[in-house]
# Entry
Amino acid sequence: MANSPSSDSMIDRIVRVLETFTADRSVQSASQIGRRAALPSSTAHRIVDELVDAGLLGRDEDRRVHLGMRLWELALRGSTALRLRQAALPYMERVQTHIRQHTQLAVLEQDEALFLERLSHPDAGANITRIAGRLPLHASSSGLVLLAHAPADLRERVLAQPLRALAPETVTDPGRLRRLLAGVRRDGVAIAQGSIESVSTGVAVPIRDAGEVVAALSVVLPRQAPHTAAIIALREAVTGIEATLRSPR
Ligand code: PHB
# Structure
């Protein structure tokens, strides 16, 4: 599909344009997009115009560009993520009511934990997770669950890479991480104290569909909070979510 003098395809360029949008950078000019996507200005303007015409990008009265609702609509329609989120939400709300902290749903995506949903309580403690945001597999409790149950080749790939410390307690030694993951598989829960931020502890359990781990359900607690009630609430929620996933659509 290389239809430009350079070797990147039109699809590559469109993806680079879309990837310039982040949670903190939701509105940009076409020139800024071009610079950030490393595209010639004329190419960036043309791609932006075409994506705006297709509704995948939108433009405000100052000609600043944002992601289009149609992109959201197409991305969610019929997606596995939507099915999981719909199955999980009623049970996440129960966990939320009971534990009154943060409750999250994450899936494995390109060697990271991608968060599909997050519910929070007004008085809940710190939490850096965002919906549609990502966290490293080796650092977050959800990531540890997903990594523990990931295909062996993916796990080895992650263990072979330099493991970045997000906080002083993040496990970055591959041998220690390997033992930690074996413990997660054995115990059916990951408890990550201070691994993302010193002030909090993530607690996560696996969600299975047709025998395979497809997601992680987690709570983020203040560091010193007891874990037992959270683990019980998460496991009860997973029983309900898995039953919903088993039932005919
Ligand atoms: C975790 O899942 O371990 C986690 C996530 C976000 C935080 C803290 C912990 O802010």
